[in-house]
Design goal:
Helices cover 78% and strands 0% of the residues. By secondary structure, the chain is mainly alpha-helical. α5 packs antiparallel against α6. The two termini are 26 Å apart. 45% of the residues are buried.
Length: 638
Amino acid sequence: MSSTAVTTPSRLGLPRWAAPAGVAVLFVAAYLVFRGSGTLPHDKEAPQFLAVTELREWIDDHRNDNPLFLYFLNYIRLFVGQLYTLFQTTLYALGWPGITGVMGALAWLAGGWRIALLALGGVSAFGVLGLWESSVDTLALVGVAVLLSLAIGIPIGVWAGLSARTRRAITPVLDVMQIMPTFAYLAPLALFFHIGAPAGAIATMIYAIPPAIRITALAISSVSPTAVEASTSLGATRRQTLVKVYLPLARSTMALAINQTIMMALSMVVIANLISAPGLGGDIIRGLSRAQVGIMLPAGVAIVIMAVMLDRMMMAVARRDAHAKLRRTDLVGAGVLGVAGLALIPVLPPIWPESLTVNVVAEVNAAVSWAETSWYPVTTFIKDVTSHALLNPLESLLTAAPWWLVALAVLSLAWRVSGTRPALVSLACLLGIALLGVWEHTMQTMTTVAVAVLATLLIGLLLGVAAARSPRYSAIQRPLLDAAQTMPAFVYLLPALALFGTTRFTAIFASIIYAVPPVVRLVEDGIKGVPATVVEAAASAGSTSGQLLWKVQLPMARRAILLAANQGIVMTLAMVVVGGLVGAGALGYDVVAGFSQRTDFGMGFVAGIATVLLGVMLDRITQGADTRRPSPRKRKFT
């Protein structure tokens, strides 16, 4: 028997880059031919805007005779309003001595005397800043929103943790809720619940619920199956297993869920002031409208102090051993603080004495004016270079291109990067935006988001890689990232407004410093997660430090980097829309105008929906890239 070697003729294949380059050339040619046609310019008097405004007027006129409002929505509003009044009345009855003592006692029980000192200093700072009443109103609003979020979110999270089918059903809803910028919650809630404290509390509750559900579900699903089986084998019912096994073992993670719910609520209560929710948000919005950092800064500092104080208390609870008993000294210290605070209620005035407040408005405004004058050449140079080199050309490209060409380009990019389903979702989102009549402003918003995301990812990669490769640098940077992630989004507008005034670059700068911390964390964790054996093998093969980074660590940390890109895009979009308050224009301005001017309510409502669609589109593309296998064009040949 003989064998004959059969040779397969070599294929004349094109380089891998040839197909994308050819498609890019076709798009450029189509743009040059059709530029200026099919651009869908913005029209403030569009029929869909007017229809929504008329619907708002009809709802306002029939709020007290329509069955949906009369027997359902009005009762919800009434219940939330009474709950807020109860919280507010209780806090004002305690006065500043009672609140200070009770918060100090709770903090001592949560984490010891150091956390108690932080709480005492934090509560006192509200009064020193001259914001006692606004801070109490904010605490009441946060308390109501967090209570409702946990009362609804924890049972749903437990259900999702026990049932994979429930988890799959609610995950898309939670995805959309977390993608939605904070502004997008306000328009429908103002439509159905009017304005005021109840509407603000409901908006804050809806915004804060997703982490309560997600983290609770994660905590329950992570409980050891062995412990559950042991409980079942001993004859425990499902309810007993839940109460005596699942919940105790998931306690520390569920404390993290409460912590994240509080942080999300604090982030939202400021924006809820746009629908007349009380609290510190009013001072920040007033400062933004007048472009006076001196009015904004004390309120921003108060919110940061409140966030840090509550964050440290909840994290101390999460870290504490479930079986550890409180020491007698802790019980005594907490008891002394609580009793002293309550005993001083009839002795001291309930409102913080005005003589103990510090007014820094004039000084801060003077410092900002000095900074604007002194740094004007630098800030103007940065702003002008970014505008002329990136913003203006990209905006001209997107707004002058036919809408169908942009949609086709996004479809092709999404298919290439993420696959068929994300591509179809992205196309549906763009078609929805076109039908809503806000195409031009959406393209302007997309321009701002693209520039901000580019800068965010560049800075995040550099800082994340540096932290991953230097433990000393990571130890210095991590506390700064912790503090940055504790701050509510609005706080980032303070330095941006002080440096750049009311321009669209202000929103870009604020969104960069808002989105960089999570990007840095994800990149650092991704690179640190590369197996040490792989790194050692590459190093022993003679790889330099740069080769090790580019050829081993970054490729193997791809999933973490893509997740960082996803989070950067979502957070940047949320902040750019908030930037409508400081001159960012586009969809953010439309939303703000819809709340401030009754005749523009329809435009603001539609702009909020368009923002959600834009966020879903960008999220699906980057999420798909995270889980996507090689390109659909790639084939195996044998």
